[in-house]
Amino acid sequence: MLEIKNLHVKLADEDKVILKGLSLTVPKGEVHAIMGPNGSGKSTLAYVLAGRAGYEVTDGDILWNGESILEMAPDERAAKGVFLAFQYPMEIPGVAGLTFLRTATNALRKKRGQDELTTPAFFKLVKEKGADLNIDVEMLKRPVNVGFSGGEKKRSEILQMALLEPTLCVLDETDSGLDIDALRIVSEGVNALRSKDRAFLVITHYQRLLNYIVPDKVHVLADGKIQKTGGKELALELEKSGYTDYSGKAA
Amino acid sequence: MTIAVMKTKAEQALTEAFEQAAPKLPGGAAVQAARKNAIGTFSALGLPHRRVEEWKYTDLRAALKETLPVAVDDTATVTIADLIVALGPLAHIDAYRITFVNGACRADLSDLEGADGLDVKPLSGALAGAPDEVAAHLSATTGPDKDATIALNTAFMTDGAVVRVADQAKLAKPLLIVFLRAGSDARFAAVRNIIAAGAGSLATIIEAHITVPGATPDGQMNTLTEITIGQGAETHHVKVAAGSGKGMHLANWNVALARDAHYRGFQFTSGIALARNQIHTVYQGEGGKLDLSGAFLARGHEHIDTTLVVDHAVPRCESRELFKGVLDDHGRGIFQGKIIVRPDAQKTDGKQMAQALMLSPDAEFDSKPELEIYADDVVCGHGTTSAQLDEDLLFYCMSRGIPEHEARALLIESFVGEAIDKLEHEGLRSALSRLAVDWLRQGQA
To answer: Is residue B1's pLDDT more than 60?
Structure first.
């Protein structure tokens, strides 16, 4: 279970406060959506969960399975099952996709006390998981994300998620820049990973994604706090009324 | 009144060393005359220092305080097992091989069997046996006219490889030219390769400057390769100079491309106290293509200088340069890239990039691109960057579970990898990646 308790976050280098007492609980087996206007702190929440530098937690805590993760480095969090699918997946020129995936997979397996995968075993696994996401292995021989289209980058994020077998999946605006076919493929990839042992936090600006990844709960984040929590029908309401009620500004 | 230019101790010592060594250096009268002429040129030039523009960042006069005994008639015990250990990852490359130990050819460590279309001879023999064949190369190199390092090379060269790739020959394997440092005494050695790639030929030639395990890590190497690429030929040329943080490596490549020739050069330099890699290329016919790339890795107080001149003397030629450096501690990298486009060299297409990754606040990268363009219908560009490791990429890797030190290594590797990926030969690519990774590991140890 993910428990975010009264989380206050500011930028480390500036006096700008972004999260102002955010509280949220996502039990295993559930998918929760976070919706909110631009600048409400959605991406900050995603980055703070994954442990990116540049943010300072001034109050509150984040517990994953009862353990605070705030002091953990990003790779330790990953070992505990935390995974962030980036809004803008990064390009790493010079590192072949397969090398990157294999390094990450085996680093995590090692930390989780599992045997490292041999090259043939790993290759077979990538081929299998890639096929589900319409990703050809040839594409992964190229440097990580370099020259990929928006859709290819997002699919490659979901492939990483499938390979690394996280238990807390945070998806940051995974729908941004996707056409309808790519959205379907990505959503199917996510849905295939839904299980009673996994919690999902799906961050999105638009309701559209939630037609494909149907959430158990929807939270409205505005001005650094959860303003309202409801069922999946809340997303539809928001689609109609916009975020004006929550932030005083039009989205 | 006469004005005598003060000579440094080292300059004097080199001139004296030449007098002593001259009788033992290979070559008949014509060669001896060329040597004498060269030491005269050196004597007039002196060691280059920071007030000589091309040597602004590498003050050789200050760095070369004392000369080492000249390697001539040197005997050192080196076995094939020593050679394999010294080659490290390069040993896995299936190649024809000619080996020199302290500047002298060693037939027992060479293997040229079945080298069809390839003629390889030691320079020492060529100098003694057929002076006319090589004498031309001694007096008229395609490199710069007045260069102290080239003059010293001509004066002192003991050996090297004279290579001829037959017209239309496609070599089945690369040729590996190994220069080994052996023995416990540090030496000054000068070697020269003369390579001619025949028209329409395809060849890969690798020079490796390495040290036998247990030998002194110190020494001064002066190496020069004259290479001419025949019409329509494609030549891949690689130099690896890897040490353990000591020694001096002064290198010249003088490259001439005939019409439609394609030359792909790569230099890997690591672990040398002071390295100066000079590359001088000239196009002698239209349609020539040049790809120069390299990786330089420096830590401690190591200093690695790449200075190149690409001379577009004729129209419709292409040049590409990509050099990547990783600099840690007080490591210093220098890149000077001059592209000359002469008035007649219309339709020239030139692009140059030099990048350094700075791993320490004390590291230094001096980059000086110089475009001298006298033609009006050309496309030329250059760029240079120096940056620290990208923290965002580091976070991305770590968020996938890769521990920080591994993520750093991966990103540094990838930075250098962009240059190494220019190599077409897969075995070479993996050998050089291995060398880069080993260098990184030494830093983490």
So the answer is: no
Residue of A nearest to B420 (CA): A94
Residue B205's pLDDT band (cuts 50, 70, 90): very high
- Residues of chain A contacting B399 with CB distance shorter than 8 Å: 50-52, 74-75, 77-78, 83-84
Q: Work out the minimum CA distance from B343 to partner chain A, whole angstroms.
A: 37
Tell me what pLDDT residue B5 has: 63
ipTM beyond cut 0.90: yes
**Taking Cα atoms as reference points, which of B395, B430, B392, B399 lies closest to residue B413?**
B430
Please determine, for residue B140, whether its predicted confidence score (pLDDT) is greater than 70.
Answer: no
CB A146 within 8 A of CB A93: yes
In the predicted model, what is the mean pLDDT of chain B?
Answer: 93
DSSP at B159: B
Judged against a pLDDT cut of 50, whether residue A250 lies above it is answered with no
- Average pLDDT rounded to a whole number, residues B69-84: 86
Q: What is the pLDDT of residues A16-45, one digit of tens each?
A: 999 999 999 999 999 999 999 988 999 999
Residue with the two structure tokens 């069809």: B116
- Residue A214 CB neighbour total at 10 angstroms: 13
Provide the 10 A C-beta neighbour count for residue A115: 9
Count contacts between A and B (CB, < 8 Å). Answer: 77
CA distance A75 to A78: 5
Evaluate if residue A88 carries a pLDDT over 50: yes
B53 and B336 Cβ atoms separated by less than 8 Å: no
Distance from CA of B406 to the nearest CA of A (A): 9
What is the SS3 assignment for B316?
coil
Question: For the residues of B14-62, what is the DSSP string, one character each?
Answer: HHHHHHHHGGGSS--HHHHHHHHHHHHHHHHH-S--TTSGGGTT--HHH
Question: Do residues A135 and A166 lie in contact, with contact meaning Cβ atoms separated by under 8 Å?
Answer: no
pLDDT at A239 over 90: no
- Are B393 and A79 within 8 A, CB to CB? no
Mutate to test the interface with A, among B326, B391, B397 (most CBs of A within 10 A): B397
Place of tokens 């002091």: A71
Residue A249 three-state SS:
coil
Residues B386/B388/B392/B393 CA torsion (nearest 10 deg): 80
B416 contact A CB<8A: yes
Cα–chain center distance at B91: 20
Cβ contact, residue pair A93, B400, below 8 Å = no
The pLDDT score that the predictor gives to residue A242 is 84
Q: Tell me the pairing of strands B274-283 and B303-312.
A: parallel
Q: Looking at A237-241, B57-61, B232-236, which range is the least confident one? A: A237-241
CA B65 – CA B283 distance, rounded (Å): 37
Spatial separation of the C-alpha atoms in residues B236 and B234, rounded to whole Å:
7
What are the structure tokens assigned to B269, written together?
Answer: 């330099």
Give percent above pLDDT 90 in chain B: 82
As a whole number of angstroms, the distance between CA A226 and CA A37 comes to 12
Asked if B294 contacts B337 with a C-beta cutoff of 8 angstroms, the reply is no
